[in-house]
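Notebook B, p. 112. Complex prediction, attempt 2.
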Amino acid sequence: MPVSKPDSALLILGHGSTENPDSAQPSWEHADAIAATGQFRSVHCAFWKEEPSFRQVWPMIEEAEVYVVPNFISEGYFTRQVLPRELELEGHTTRHGNRTVHYCDPVGIHATMTDLLIKRAYEIIDEGVKIEETALIIVGHGTNLNKKSTEAITDQVEAIKKKGEPFAEVLDAYMEEAPFIADWRTLTDAPTVVVVPFFIADALHSYQDIPVLLGIEKEITEAASQREVFRQNPYHFGDRTLYYSSAIGTDPSLAQVIIDQVAYFDEHYLS
Amino acid sequence: MNLAEELEALLPANESRFFGELHLSRDGNGVFMACHRADLEMSETLTPVESLAGLREIAKFDANKEYRPLKTAPTLKGGWKTSTDSAAEFLKRLDCIYPGVFATWIAYHRGTHHPTPLRDTLDRQTGMYRFAGSITDQMANQIMRDTCSAGCLRKIAWPISNEAPVSRLKPGMKSIPVICTEACTFAVSEARKLVKEAYDKANPPAEN
């Protein structure tokens, strides 16, 4: 559903990277797509590790009302601590002089992400693949330092199961905690496995690290934009077939999810 | 004046200015043009790049195809130009090359955006950067010299601490200032690295 904010600015927040040139790319692409719709007077991006930084962006924005949407997968350290601190936000709405800033929920927790994950899985498998013989694995980062880091993934797995999709199994797996994605061959015995990374960009983790853990690359490759060889699904491991998707955050539909988070803010948090 | 009007005022018809490694100009018809300052003499042969995405790609990699996470590093590649008759559009295009740098200067010059002392930036860090605030003044000067001055075109407008004021930067006659009002992620990372190195040196691993 479109929103009409002809006097407001939209600010999309991303992590960015000083190492990988593709980390910020989805945020810019979604920003350009949203700007082209004219739903906001201006659309901006800012990043933790790239420019403009969270600290540099305020002078660029001239509108009195700003909607801030974190292009992050989950609620946690960044969305609750780093972003509000760096942008000097308190609670849902902050007033800075003549400017009113609305801090929306991150894209990754919006309800429509579940359908997007399912759509992405169906998109990458070939015609004729039997869904009932196919396991869907949603892979995230995971860390033993934070119990909450897996919640976004397990919530999506439960939501996909509840939708009654005919996959043989729907599983969660992680880079750095059990169940490990490197063990995908033993996590399921389904003949076909589809792995969808629940990440914002095809950057360090989803493009470079996870393919090594899956066994489709022998060593960490160059970044996607610096590589001349393109990956091609499917991958065969004996009698098993593996499909590996690009990160969910690269899906053009994420632009609509960003707008949906603005609409959600107006419905639930606007005072 | 809004930002686009400020840009128009700084760049009237038939005038030009430097902006970092860019040369900005405006012809008699009011059309804005930007190119690398090293390409001034060959503007007829430059490749026109008119999309924001195209300009971001130019800023993303240097001439050796190395990633440029710091957009004000002195490594902007040449061979291109961009032109438009809209000041607002021209500003968006400049922001692809130097994100937020023009707006930062205008806000600083107006007195609506104040530099943040380095120690304030470092002291509010958490997570893996939480110890960055314990740098010495000597380390801070080392960062300013070896990381900032050596690798970035921005002129530092922030003091090390509130007790160490810095003089205000002034507009140039022929250039739009490229200024830094707060230490960036590279300076913060360097502070963390220096603190860690000093700690490791003072606390060597015990020998068996």
